[in-house]
Fold this sequence. Notes:
Elements: H1 4-9, E1 32-33, E2 50-51, H2 63-69, H3 75-90, E3 96-98, E4 102-104, H4 112-122, E5 132-134, H5 151-166, E6 191-192, H6 195-205, H7 216-223, E7 225-227, E8 241-244, H8 250-253, H9 258-270, E9 275-278, H10 285-298, E10 305-306, H11 316-319, E11 327-330, H12 333-342, E12 353-361, H13 363-373, E13 381-386, H14 388-396, H15 399-405, E14 408-411, E15 428-430, H16 433-443, E16 447-449, H17 452-461
Parallel strand pairs: 4-5, 4-6, 8-9, 8-11, 9-10, 12-13, 12-15, 13-14, 15-16
Antiparallel strand pairs: 1-2, 3-7
Helix pairs in contact: 2-3, 3-7, 4-5, 6-10, 9-10, 9-12, 10-16
Amino acid sequence: MVSAENLVSLRNAGSTNAMVSERRGSYPVSVSQNPEPKVPATGYRIPDTVNVRTSMPSLHLSQTDQSMLDGEQGESLALAMRILLAVAKAMGAERLLDITGAHIDGCLYQGKVGLDFVERMAADGGRVRVPTTLNVSSLDLLHPELYRVDPGEEAASKRLMSTYESLGCRPTWTCSPYHIDVRPEFGEQVAWAESNAIVFANSVLGARTHRYGDFIDICAAMTGRAPAAGLHLEENRRGEIVFDVSGISRELRSSDVFFPVLGYAVGTAAGKSIPVIVGLVSAVEDQLKALGATAAAAGAVGMFHAVGFTPEAPDLETALGGLAPQRRIDVTPEMLRTFRDELTTAKGDALGAVSLGTPHASYDEIVSLVEVLGGRRSTIEAYVSTGRAIADQAAAAGLVDVLAAAGFTLVTDTCTYITPIIRTSGAVMTNSGKWAYYAPANLGVPVHFGSLSEVVESAVAGRVVRDEALWS
Length: 472
C-alpha cells in the first residue's frame, strides 16, 4: 500500500523504476543513419535506411507495405513507410495492422522542421489513406483579431495548416475529435496523436491507439497502417495500478472538479502504467475527459480503466486482465487537497482573466457554463475554447450570443494555453487541470485552479472566490 505522504513526495514517479513498469511490448532501440543520407530540397537530411538492433523481431510486410516501401507509390509514401517501420521495430512489432482513421498532432507551428517535414510529405502529391482530423493550430483563423504572434510565425503557421489540408486531412482544428462525427467504435484500430485524445479514445471509447506524436501520426495516416504493438494489442491494455477512491465523500466524487484533481494524482503516480480506478459513483464523458487529460499531462497515461464506467472495465478483475495489480493506492481527502492546491501557482485573490475549454469544450460544457452564469457578466477577461463543430452547434442554439453578452470570448482552432491570446499579465483562473499544468511554463502566468462554479463566481466578482465546502 502507498500512503498519501509517499504518493505526494513521489512527484516524478512516472520517471522512476520504482513507480513505473515499462510498457509490455516496448524495447530499447539503437538507430544509425546512412553515412550519406539524401538531402531533399527542404534542406534537412533523411536516411535511406534505419538500422535497428538485430535482436529485434523481424517485421512481416504485406505486398502493399512492400510496394510503398519500395517507392512504387511515390517517394513521400516510401518515406512514410520507412519511418513507420523504424517505429514498429523500436516497439517490438512483428507486423503492421490496418487503421481506420488518424488524428494529427503536429499542426502547431513550433519551428521550421515541422513545416519542412510536412511539405516534404506533400511534395509529390502525398495523400492520407484514411479519414484524418487535425489538432489545434497556433492560430484562430475564425477570430484572427484574438491572437498576437509575429507576422513571420503567422505566415508559417498558415502554411503548415494549408499543407496538412493539401494531404487530404480534414480541417477540424480541435484537440477533441471525439466531439465530432469521427468517433471510432469499440475495438476499432486508429492512430491518434494528442495526449488527451489518445487517452479518451482508448479509455472512454474502447478504440485502440498507441501514444503517437508528431511526424509518426501523419506517416500512419498516409500508409493506413500502424505497428501491431503497444496499446493496439489486447495483452497490453490490462490495468496495472489500482486507485481506490471509495474513501472520498460521495458529494466530492460526484462533482466535476473531482475528476481533473484525481487525474493529476493518478498521472503523477502512474507514469506510463495503466491505472484502474475503483469507487466512482458516477461519471459522464466530460468528467472522464477531464480525468484523462490531466493524467496524460501529469504523467504519460495513454489509457485508464474506471470500473463500471469505461467499456473494458465492467469489473475490477476484467480491468486487470485476471492478474493481481502491481500496486494499490487508497486515495484520501488529504491527498486530493494537496494535488488540488498544487494546480494553483498564484498567490492572493487578484485575478486578471478566466479561461475554460481545455480540452476543447463540448456542447454540454458550454450549456453548463451558460447555466452557471445565469445572466450575469464577467468583469474581467473571459475565454472559452472549443472546436469549430461545437462552436457552430452552440451558435445555432443562440449560446454564443449569450456568452458574448456575458463577456466571454469564444476561441476556436487553438487554445489559450498555447497561443498568446490572453492579454492580462495577471493571474488566470481555470477549471482545467491540463491548462493549470501547462500554462505557467507556456505563458508565464500564475494560475488559480477551481471548479466551474468557482471560476464563474470569480469572473463575476473580479477576484478569486472559493467554496471549500466540498473539500472539508
